[in-house]
Amino acid sequence: ISSGFGDSNEMRLVRLDGSVVHRWPVRLFSIFPNPNHIEPPDRTPKTEWNAELHGGAVLPDGSVVFNFEGAGMAKLDKCGVVQWALPRMTHHSLERAQGGGFWAGSHRYVSDPAILPPFRVPFLEDTVLRVSDEGHVMQEISVPGLFLKNGLSALLLIHAQMPQIAPSVGDRLGLEIPYRDLTHLNDTEELSGETAVAFPQFAPGDLLISVRELNTIMVFSPVTEQVKWHQTGPWIAQHDPDFQKNGRMTVFSNNNDGTPAGSSLGGSTVVEVDPVTGTARTLYGGSPRQRVYSNIRGKHQKL
Question: Phi and psi dihedrals of 102, rounded to 5?
Fold first, then answer.
């Protein structure tokens, strides 16, 4: 588990009874003494307590690889010694890649209006990173670019009258406008060779991603950047789509309705979707006996 303990962050390996087997102390400003890679600068955590972990993996040799949310990726050995640090604005999930290395999400801060027209600057451009076992970026894929290259501009621009493009209330009132999060990538999962048998329409190595702001999940080839499948809803503000060995995908649907307890939409659910037919059904949640709600974040795991 990873969390804030005392005045800082720590990763812990725990037994089922809660006893701690091992600890890895995690200190943002020890790993990145001058985090100038974080843009704009006001996104830099003010203290260790403000730096949060989001996405990590424990490796067989006892080392750990993890993301600081929006602030960088690093690897510590089993004694907590830094092996490498990647000064990129990595965030959310971190998954092992089948051929070695890791898949993770990252941000690029865009202030040049020529980079991704017609979006108004500044904004955060989500990218999918493949990082080597040695901490080097091997590949970077633009998430908005996937939509534009695959004829999905209508979906990407579904909020065309929102502040991503149109002048906002803040503009008209002369207020400062913060950066915009166009897509909010929150998960990347690679289709393994073993599981690909159940998905003949895809190929081993294809990536399944979750784009929260568009209520959309999609599968694409990281080699050709061809989108092979996508679906919008019935999930809302979803997280953690997973390939399952029955040829379907499961999704944690937050169903964020703007209320503290999810009272309007009945709480969060775990949804299963058949990518061939597009039909979906609720596996968990949506009833008083299975009440669960996470307005943001959230994961699920099939047992």
Answer: -145, 150
Closest C-alpha among 147, 110, 148, 141 to residue 127: 141
Mean pLDDT, to the nearest integer, of 210-225? 97
235 Cβ neighbours under 8 A, 6+ residues apart: 215, 217, 251, 253, 254, 255, 269, 271, 280
Give the DSSP letter string of 62-90: S-EEEEETTTEEEEE-TTS-EEEEE-SEE
pLDDT band with cut points at 50, 70 and 90 for residue 175: very low
The total of other beta-carbon atoms located within 10 Å of residue 178's CB is: 13
Do the bridges between strand 89-96 and strand 102-110 make them parallel or antiparallel, or are there none, so unpaired?
antiparallel
Which is it for the CA torsion 228, 233, 235, 238, positive or negative? positive
pLDDT at 163 over 80: no
* Main-chain phi, psi angles of 122, to 5 degrees: -85, 155
Question: Structure pTM?
Answer: 0.92
The whole-angstrom separation of Cα 249 and Cα 60 is 28
Helices H, strands E: what count in the chain? 5, 20
Average pLDDT over residues 250-273: 94
